[in-house]
Amino acid sequence: xxxxxxxxxxxxxxxxxxxxxxxxxxxxxxxxxxxxxxxxxxxxxxxxxxxxxxxxxxxxxxxxxxxxxxxxxxxxxxxxxxxxxxxxxxxxxxxxxxxxxxxxxxxxxxxxxxxxxxxxxxxxxxxxxxxxxxxxxxxxxxxxxxxxxxxxxxxxxxxxxxxxxxxxxxxxxxxxxxxxxxxxxxxxxxxxxxxxxxxxxxxxxxxxxxxxxxxxxxxxxxxxxxxxxxxxxxxxxxxxxxxxxxxxxxxxxxxxxxxxxxxxxxxxxxxxxxxxxxxxxxxxxxxxxxxxxxxxxxxxxxxxxxxxxxxxxxxxxxxxxxxxxxxxxxxxxxxxxxxxxxxxxxxxxxxxxxxxxxxxxxxxx
Length: 365
Hints:
This is MBL fold metallo-hydrolase. Residues 117-311 form the Metallo-beta-lactamase domain. Residues 27-50 are annotated as: Disordered. The structure is a single chain. This protein has 365 residues and is of the alpha/beta class. The chain has one domain (62-363): Metallo-beta-lactamase, Chain A. The chain is built from 9 helices and 15 strands. The strands form 3 sheets. A 7-stranded mixed beta sheet has the order 8-7-6-5-4-3-15, with no helix packed on it. A 6-stranded mixed beta sheet has the order 9-10-11-12-13-14, covered by helices on one side. It has a two-stranded antiparallel ribbon with strand order 1-2. β4 and β5 form a beta hairpin. α7 (259-267) packs parallel to α8 (291-301) and α8 (291-301) packs across α9. The longest helix has 19 residues, at 2-20. The relative contact order is 0.16.
């Protein structure tokens, strides 16, 4: 009898955490649910990829991954400090050119036609729903804290995984952001965290949203979503940002697929493509690209210049921490692709021929 009571207590505690622990997010409103159910991407109670994307791992695969994780990779994290360029908010605001600043992983600050955009902001030290536990950031400091950022016109979110949508970051940011532009279903998390629903724009794939002279388009990705075990309840997206002067593509998280060519055919060529290039594994090939596939994706979307992202901040896979940038650089050289390799915090000006190109990671132990 005591075991039954213990089991019941455990079940109740789990249900309480899943329903009331704020970092796990919230549920969509009735209006959002209506749009979700009408989406071509939604069927049988969850969002689906455009092409079959199996994620069923065998017991052998799971066991091997667990053993490798326990063993660890001595090159899985940098031993030394990463070079960080301090962010000068005044200089960023005053310059008239379109610019982008990489904050590590997939967090990016953009200025496009004078509009300040923040993509997948994660400013916490852990890519996790629990403070002080989980994948820890390589750098103790970022180029800037949230309080040091200029006023943000819009935050754009690719999907609701913890390394792209961070509870603590959104709570600190919400007062200085005019609008949040997100895939279908993600608004439920933001409203749970105190964001005014009137400041949230939810988009399905191929929806175009006009915002302060820009066109922001939610485009397909090949991935998945879910917080607290609620997989597939929200959509995942890549994003196209169009202005009079610049065309920018952000891949979000995605396995390789035909959607890249479709996006390039409809909106390319792009002045700059920000492409996921790290945190991959052969077992996850359908939902995360290898560096070589990232280069091909850039060619498919017709990116004139590529910045590799989704690396340089957290260890979320078993490869060495420099493996993504080394492999993507080699593949880019072989394909004669223009690659930019900025340090974290380094300002990159869009539309010029002068781009950061140093192998700065080679200087770190």
